[in-house]
Amino acid sequence: AFRASLWDYSLLRGFIQFVGVDNYVRALTDDPIFWQSMRTTLWYALAKVPLTVSLALGLALFANQPKPGMGVIRALIFVPVVTSFIVVSIVWGMVLNKDVGLLNSILQSIGLPRFEYLTSQTNALPTIIAISIWKDVGYSVIILVAGLRGIASDFYDAAIVDGATLWERFIYITIPMLRRHIMFVSVIGTL
């Protein structure tokens, strides 16, 4: 990719002419679309990663409970991760369609106006972020559940004996013991 960036390159004709850093100069000075795409990418990352990690942590805490049926719940949380992007795009496209989409039909049936999710400049990015979170959160949940399973119960038992509340156990035991897992899912989400 770096080599291609230094050339006038075409997918059909290959490397045409060496241009050096001219492509970079043009992108940084003459191309407003480049800066718009950089802002959009930054907003996407700043919104998606913290929301995904926070939601995944909450779902992991829920899915890690030793109750019957939690294996099925973990599997249901993970299903979007293994679903093809093409299938996800088609299904969400049908659900969010302005004219015939399922979500707008429900909104209209309760007396609310139809909403443009994917065709509006202001709503498209938040909608794509929400769909991305739905698609990717299951992977982070599985990683965080594995991390939660690796925390020895002795830490929690000692904290309970010392009178630590549920919140204090979460802040002073769970979060520090999961910091590597949280960092991993944050880095993967950012990439």
Helix and strand layout, with pairings?
Layout: H1 2-5, E1 7-10, E2 14-18, H2 22-29, H3 32-63, H4 70-82, H5 85-96, H6 102-109, H7 124-149, H8 153-161, H9 166-177, H10 179-190
Antiparallel strand pairs: 1-2
Helix pairs in contact: 3-7, 3-10, 4-7, 7-10
Describe the structure.
This protein has 191 residues and is mainly alpha-helical. It contains 10 helices and 2 strands. Strand 1 and strand 2 form a beta hairpin. The longest helix has 32 residues, at 32-63. It is extended and about 70 Å long.
Describe this protein with a few key phrases:
191 residues, mainly alpha, two-stranded antiparallel sheet, 10 helices, 2 strands
Number of helices: 10
Order of helices and strands: HEEHHHHHHHHH
- Biggest sheet, strands in spatial order? 1-2
Give the biggest beta sheet.
2 strands, antiparallel
In round numbers, the mean pLDDT is 91
- Number of DSSP strands? 2
Structural class: mainly alpha
SS strand fraction: under 5%
Rg computed from alpha carbons, rounded to a whole number of angstroms:
23 Å
Helix content: over 70%
Shape: extended
Distance between the termini: 16 Å
Low-confidence stretches: none
